[in-house]
Amino acid sequence: MLNNNNNNKVNRKRLYFLFILFLIAFFLIIYRLIYIQYLNASEYKNYAEYQHTGEFTIISKRGKILDRNGVELAVSLNEKTVYANPKLVIDSEYEASILAEILGMDENEIREKLDNKDLGFVYIQRKIPTEKAEEISRHNLPGIYIQDESKRYYPLNDIAAPVIGFTGIDNNGLSGIELQYEKVLRGVDIKVTAEKDVFGNIIPIEDSQNNEPINGKDVVLTIDSQIQYMVQKKLEELTSGYDALRAICIVMNPDNGEIYSMASYPGFDLNKYEEADPELYKIEGISFTYEPGSTFKIVNVSTALENNTVSKSQSFDLPPSIKVGDRVIREISRTYNVTYTTEEIIKHSSNVGAVTIALSMGEKLFWEGIKNFGFGEITGIELPGEEKGLFYDYKTWPASTIGALAIGQSISVTPLQLLRAACAIANGGYLVTPSIVKEIELLENEIEDEQMDDRKRIISEETSDSVKDMMLAVVEGGTGTAAQIEGVKVCGKTGTAEKANKNGAGYSEGRQIVSFVGFAPYEDPQVAIIVVVDEPQGGEGGIWGGTIAAPAFRDIMDFSLKRLKIY
Predict the structure, then answer these.
(1) pLDDT tens, 21-74?
(2) Cβ–Cβ < 8 Å for 330, 336
(3) Distance in angstroms (rounded) separating the CA atoms of residues 528 and 525
(4) What is the CATH number of domain 225-563?
(5) Which of 114, 178, 474, 526 has the fewest CB atoms inside 10 Å of its own CB, making it the most exposed?
(6) Burial class, 451, CB count within 10 angstroms (exposed 0-12 / middle 13-18 / buried 19+)
(7) What is the DSSP string of 209-246?
(8) Where are the alpha helices (DSSP H) in 58-106?
(9) CA 282 to each of CA 67, 125, 269, 285, 502: distance values in angstroms, whole numbers, following the listed order
(10) Band (7; pLDDT cuts 50, 70, 90)
């Protein structure tokens, strides 16, 4: 009987102890529930939302760049990007090995990213092929995600590469039109909050009408891709054939300033721009500056005719050399006196004749004429990186400067500046603003025409007609006969200029820039072209604008006139 009482006491103690433990556990559970649901509810709510919802950036599609005929020069392709949320990665070693195998990356590098639990986002690899992205998705790796991303692609590779420009890894324009019209092409990205499934993938929302990014707008250039292609091939032939440093060409409408082609060689492939020398990114037609040589004589003569200091048929007795200040300027090959009219001075590209004409004006009138032709200032074309050249005020000129300017020295110009000056002679005396952008898409079915009637008369029609006749004579029987085209009257002017020494003192023998600028048809000029070749070597007929640049001008002009159905 005593034993039973003792056993009952022990059992009751056990029951009390278990009951107390139960009460303690019960109150702990109640406390925990109160702590989770009330005292610290916001923290757990945020954590749950973090696991089940996410903020995502929906990238806008970049607008296209097209040539004047709708040929695609720059487009956007859909690519995939792999990223991770390290906080949701379960097995970093396993997941890193899978990703490294598929992406061809270093496994330790990936694992280091996945083990950084302080980050909620980290790129693994951007812009990968869709096939690789699908293979990664099939593994359902926790914390590893795939998102769409746009990649820029240039269908014609190197065609008009510096002009078009390129974008960086984040799809932002870095050069050329891509940079100049970044705000138009880029569009507007948007950030949205969406639910995620257990693997972190976005659960589509049926009503996503208000969650669409604003895509970028298209930019239509004045460039004709076929003319551009032909020009680039011709420049490649020139550079390779004469072992030149570079060759540059611009094809332009002299009446409204539209650029049909702006090219230089060497060039680069836009789809592999990282492999190219950054120097090749420059748009040489607007950034390369040089002394124009004899092509500048058309500016000299136009200014003198406009100011009535000489006439078209006026005759001059010209010795083989002339002294201006402390400098003696000589003819290239003539060693005897001749009598030339103003027209013959241009036709035969007489240095002494050009100096004589400049001296008839005096420094101030000549300076004003050069300024009126737009030298010493940018042309205003819609491209980044344009240089304005170098041209000093006449009040600072040494006595010899007027003579140097008369033959295209002591001034630096860009190819586009000189071509624009020739266009003023072609179009009846108007200085036009060059343009390389034809249209910009604004809103749905709305197009803005970029062309503006921005023309300024700088010489009379009588003066322009007179100089046009002189440039016709250059091609028909002067220094530019190699520019002749059967059935078409061509106007032009040759240029051969020695390059200044790098120390700025004097000129280098054997280092020339040769060029040819002109337009056609004579009766109604519709195409103007400049060709510039830097330091050509070994020409059979000598290193002259008329022997090297003029034949290339002829081929480009012939193709352009046919392509534009002008003849």
Answers:
(1) 878 877 777 777 776 666 666 655 555 555 555 555 667 789 999 999 999 999
(2) no
(3) 7
(4) 3.40.710.10
(5) 526
(6) middle
(7) GGG--BPPPPEEES--HHHHHHHHHHHHHHHHHTT-SE
(8) 92-103
(9) 20, 30, 13, 9, 21
(10) low
Q: What is the DSSP letter of 454?
A: -
CB 220 within 8 A of CB 238: no
Strand positions, DSSP E, 452-506: 455-457, 491-500
pLDDT score of 51: 55
H or E stretch including 75?
strand 72-84
pLDDT tens column, 397-448: 999 999 999 999 999 999 999 999 999 999 999 999 999 999 987 645 555 5
Alpha helices in 373-413 (DSSP H): 401-406
Q: Minimal CA–CA distance to 227: which of 154, 163, 279?
A: 163
- Assess contact for 83 and 133: CB atoms under 8 A: no
Of 337, 329, 244, give the one whose Cα is nearest residue 293.
329
Residue entry with tokens 């000549």: 366
CA atoms within 13 A on the CB side of 193: 5
User: Locate tokens 């190219």: which residue?
Assistant: 276
Please tell me whether the peptide bond between 521 and the residue prior to it is cis, using omega within 30 degrees of 0.
yes
SS3 at position 459 = coil
Query: In whole angstroms, what separates CA 559 from the centre of its chain?
Result: 25
Calpha distance 541→242 (Å, rounded): 12
Q: What residues does 65 pair with on adjacent strands? A: 74, 219
**Domain spans, the chain:** 55-221, 225-563
Residue 544, SS3 per DSSP: coil
Q: Provide φ and ψ at 197, rounded to 5°.
A: -85, -175
Query: Is residue 530 within a helix (H) or strand (E), and if so which, with residue range?
Result: strand 527-534
Question: What span, in angstroms and rounded, lies between the C-alpha atoms of 200 and 137?
Answer: 11
Q: Class for domain 55-221, per CATH? A: alpha beta
Name the band, by pLDDT with cuts 50, 70 and 90, for residue 504.
low
Report d(CA 312, CA 146) in Å as an integer: 74
CB atoms within 10 A of CB 469: 15
Residue of 180, 159, 354 lying closest to 262 (CA atoms): 159
Task: Tell me if residue 412 is catalytic.
Answer: no
Residue tagged active-site, from 225, 294, 349, 466: 294
